[in-house]
């Protein structure tokens, strides 16, 4: 069983939601956040990327940045731009992109469920990124960005969600980045809250779709407060939004590489892949990788000799890593090697063409999206996916829900 708990959300005033809501802090840099927040005092970037209100040469990890985030949060609350609900509720958050909706439940998740493996991960985290969010959570005494979770869909749960949407008016309804529609409903009926809580007791596990660093950081803050005796009932939980896996879409996460190609590059690739010239910019099926080099696209089709039944090794990102990036280019740790970069599928193959044609990168690889079933299988097996295996769209906006730890 997993625990989902209602909470008193800190959220925007109804008429400000569209102006407050912002992209997640970790998909943009400081300069982009500064540009997006320009002329908008309500932008959540003033809290999630507080360095935009400080001198441009300041490090985003400077202690002053976290204190500025806390000051800005207090200011938003004092001005009524953000308000805390009087009672604990569940919240429905629906995102619709290109006509495809996905609806999740915003709730507070148990840190013990994560510690005990009931909330499953599929990625490693980096200490410096954890420390950043730990400092941010501590300064604000709040979970300031939601964790994106998934569950294997249950018809009873989805029926309750659908019925609530059809019989209630959303408190927020607006379009934002990439013309995604965002709607939020407040579930304030105690019977419905109890029913959903009970139904999730039969859900065996939740899965982190996106937000591994935020999860690890939130859990570590909660455990530290518990150890120090400064915890509260709320600090034993963290902010999450959980979606049924059958409504989610993973986009491709492509690669560009800046390495001089060996003279026998194509011969080395041909040992593992069948190579075909093409005009096709995206692979048509798993086991295919599109490669762009010298103004030409190629389809690389994996040979049977490199295929695997292992939940990690059979992934296309693994086939590329194990048969081209590591043995041919010597790129063994993609998290730290500066000769490789990653391009989210939302930017399209034209971004790969632009980067290679500019001369800044030598070759690009367009991948078939990882399937949600692959992600769940890897997590269930207790294994870790290669870095940058998944890119979820649409992105959950930050600023629509905050979870107060209530320890100050």
UniProtKB/TrEMBL annotation:
InterPro entries: UCP033563 (IPR008323). This is DUF1015 domain-containing protein.
């Amino acid at each position: 069983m997993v625990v989902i708990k209602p909470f008193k959300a800190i959220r925007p005033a109804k008429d400000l939601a569209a102006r407050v809501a912002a992209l997640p802090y970790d998909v943009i840099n400081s300069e982009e956040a500064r540009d997006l927040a320009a002329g908008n005092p309500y932008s959540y970037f003033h809290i999630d990327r507080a360095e935009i209100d400080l001198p441009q040469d300041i490090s985003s990890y400077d202690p002053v940045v976290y204190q500025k985030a806390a000051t800005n949060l207090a200011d938003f609350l004092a001005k009524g731009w953000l308000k805390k609900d009087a009672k604990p509720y569940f919240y429905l958050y629906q995102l619709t992109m290109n006509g495809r909706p996905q609806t999740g439940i915003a709730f507070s998740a148990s840190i013990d469920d994560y510690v005990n493996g009931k909330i499953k991960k599929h990625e490693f985290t980096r200490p410096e990124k954890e420390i950043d969010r730990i400092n941010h959570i501590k300064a604000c005494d709040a979970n300031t960005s939601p964790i994106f979770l998934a569950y294997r869909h249950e018809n009873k749960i989805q029926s309750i969600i659908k019925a609530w949407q059809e019989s209630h008016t959303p408190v927020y309804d607006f379009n934002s980045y990439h013309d995604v529609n965002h709607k939020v409903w407040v579930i304030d009926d105690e019977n419905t809250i109890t029913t959903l809580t009970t139904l999730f007791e039969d859900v065996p596990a939740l899965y982190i779709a996106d937000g591994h660093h935020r999860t690890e950081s939130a859990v570590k803050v909660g455990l530290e407060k518990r150890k120090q005796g400064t915890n509260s009932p709320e600090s034993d939980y963290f902010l999450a939004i959980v979606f049924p896996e059958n409504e989610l879409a993973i986009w491709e996460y492509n690669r560009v590489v800046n390495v001089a190609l060996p003279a026998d590059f194509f011969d080395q690739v041909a040992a593992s892949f069948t190579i075909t010239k093409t005009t096709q910019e995206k692979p048509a099926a798993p086991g295919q990788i599109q490669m762009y080099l010298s103004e030409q696209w190629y389809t690389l089709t994996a040979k049977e000799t490199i295929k695997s039944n292992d939940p990690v090794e059979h992934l296309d990102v693994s086939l590329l890593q194990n048969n081209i990036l590591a043995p041919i280019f010597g790129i063994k740790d993609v998290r730290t090697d500066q000769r490789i970069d990653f391009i989210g599928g939302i930017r399209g193959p034209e971004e790969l063409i632009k980067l290679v044609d500019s001369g800044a990168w030598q070759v690009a690889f367009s991948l078939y999206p990882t399937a949600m079933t692959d992600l769940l299988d890897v997590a269930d097996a207790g294994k870790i996916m290669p870095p940058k295996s998944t890119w979820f769209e649409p992105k959950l906006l930050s600023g629509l829900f905050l979870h107060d730890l209530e320890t100050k």
